[in-house]
Write a structure and sequence with these properties.
Shape of chain A: globular
CATH topology of chain A: MetI-like fold
CATH superfamily of chain B: MetI-like
CATH architecture of chain B: Orthogonal Bundle
Order of helices and strands of chain A: HHHHHHHHHHH
Number of domains of chain B: 1
Structural class of chain A: mainly alpha
Largest interface: A-B, 39 and 40 residues
Number of strands of chain A: 0
Structural class of chain B: mainly alpha
CATH topology of chain B: MetI-like fold
Strand content of chain B: under 5%
CATH class of chain B: Mainly Alpha
Radius of gyration of chain B: 21 Å
CATH architecture of chain A: Orthogonal Bundle
Strand content of chain A: under 5%
Number of helices of chain B: 8
Oligomer: heterodimer
Chain lengths: 249, 229
């Protein structure tokens, strides 16, 4: 049994003429990050709002929030990707749907991928937001009410500033999930890192070099994200809390 | 495009379930069984006092959890034939079908998640349980097999099942190696008849009903187990 190793392939020209295979993969990483970041903005905005609304005292608002979470949590990501790419343009008014279908690549895949990943991840963030708010001592809310704050003001000045700091560590792993999950977008034609590793394998037949390179790039990206988030946690922590004490040593 | 064609769905149902759903469910059950066994072994290795075992298992778990599942599927799809060829001392990579490849991939991948669950489960057992096992003259495997693992497993049943629901959804990714799972079957019909809206909407509804139903059952089981303890 014999496999012809050739690590030099990374520095060979890729057939598209854009440069070396390594460069080709790194452009893929750029697409992965561009997808993940745009989706992250959507996920944070919607997830933060939905998670907060699910802790309010309005039963209907809570019920709608729960329904939203269940809907996006119980359908596989790949199926959601197909829904955004193939089904949504058909359900819209014809003129708008046709316009969407004519968006040139890569944006034609990028936009549905971002929408899909954004809403998919928003549900997980909503869950964490809700858990963070519920982990705060009940007295915090009562104190707000006792001081004459409205529910909105209690959330704005008492609950949310604490909750946001609590969910920072779990958000790190969610951000790494969104980077990993963006690889599913290769099924709708987005040439991100995994997609490019696959086409590198198809062009060059150097299967293991292509996947090993992509794996290494993902690992390095993870390390950078973890370090960045650790720095962010340190810079926003509240002095005096247990988490802050633990982080100080 | 025309209206929503219900007849198309009705027509495809036997194929979707007989071919596709059978593949998906079989894959889920095999990967769950294999994943829990291998995951438990990994958890025992991670908790072992032998540095080689704990570091090795830790590296395996962290590596697989740091890269996308799609990439893991590609890795195993190409790696398994080579490893097979190496084991059987054949001169060329052996033939491995999409199903076998998927079972191996998901077993190896989900084991890393089951490992972390079982590790938490084992760590939740009071130390005294282990000591009493040794005091009775049991060896490591007996203490694990008769005392620690049954309790750890029981405590973790709801979490293990929740992970299995995630596994059930994740199996749809075998689409990338052109396997005919539930989604793959629907996708074949959708592209043949150009009925993408009908097929993908139907697939989404079916996945939703099954996953939602199962998580509802797990939640009920969780309260039941909690009451007994």
């Amino acid at each position: 049994m014999y496999y012809h190793w050739n690590w030099g392939i990374l520095f060979a020209q890729e057939p598209g003429g854009s440069g070396t295979y390594l460069h080709y993969l790194l452009v893929g990483l750029a697409w992965t990050i561009a997808t993940a970041l745009a989706a992250w903005v959507i996920a944070l905005a919607i997830g933060g709002v939905v998670g907060t609304l699910r802790t309010t005292d309005r039963p209907w608002v809570v019920r709608i929030g729960n329904g939203y979470v269940e809907l996006f949590r119980n359908i596989p990501l790949l199926v959601q990707m197909f829904l955004w790419y193939f089904v949504v343009p058909e359900l819209l008014p014809e003129a708008l749907g046709d316009w969407i279908k004519q968006i040139p690549p890569p944006w034609g895949s990028y936009i549905p991928a971002v929408m899909c990943l954004g809403l998919y991840t928003s549900v997980r963030i909503a869950e964490q937001m809700k858990a963070a708010i519920q982990s705060l001592p009940r007295g915090q809310r009562y104190a707000g009410t006792a001081m004459g704050l409205t529910q909105w003001q209690t959330y704005r000045y008492v609950i949310l500033p604490q909750a946001v700091r609590i969910i920072l560590p779990p958000l790190t792993s969610e951000f790494m999930n969104i980077i990993k999950n963006s690889s599913v977008a290769l099924t709708i034609g987005l040439m991100e890192l995994t997609g490019r590793a696959r086409s590198m394998q198809e062009f060059s037949f150097q299967t293991f070099e292509a996947y090993a390179a992509a794996t290494t790039i993902y690992l390095v990206t993870n390390v950078v994200v973890v370090l960045g988030m650790r720095w962010l946690e340190r810079s926003v922590r509240v002095p005096g809390l247990i988490a802050a004490e633990a982080g100080a040593h | 495009m025309g209206g929503f064609d219900w007849a198309e769905i009705q027509h495809a149902i036997p194929y979707l379930f007989k071919e596709g759903m059978t593949f998906t469910v079989t894959l889920t059950l095999l990967a769950m069984a294999g994943g829990i066994v291998f995951g438990t072994l990994l958890a025992m290795m991670r908790l072992s006092s032998y540095k080689v075992l704990s570091l090795g298992a830790g590296a395996y778990v962290n590596l697989l959890r740091s890269i996308p599942l799609v990439l893991v599927i590609f890795w195993f799809y190409f790696l398994v034939p080579y490893i097979g060829g190496w084991i059987t001392r054949s001169s060329s990579p052996i033939q491995v079908g999409a199903f076998a490849s998927a079972v191996i991939t998901f077993t190896m991948f989900e084991a890393t998640y089951y490992c972390e669950i079982m590790r938490a489960g084992i760590q939740s057992i009071p130390r005294g349980q282990v000591w009493s096992g040794y005091a009775l003259g049991l060896d490591y495997w007996q203490t694990m097999g008769y005392i620690v693992l049954p309790q750890a497993f029981r405590n973790m049943i709801p979490v293990l099942l929740t992970q299995t629901i995630i596994l059930f959804q994740d199996t749809s990714l075998v689409y990338v190696i052109s396997a005919t799972d539930f989604l793959g079957a629907a996708s074949k019909v959708a592209n043949r008849d150009y009925r993408l809206v009908e097929m993908y909407s139907f697939v989404a509804v079916v996945y939703f009903v099954i996953s939602f139903g199962l998580s509802f059952l797990v939640k009920r089981l969780q309260t039941k187990i909690a009451v007994i303890r």
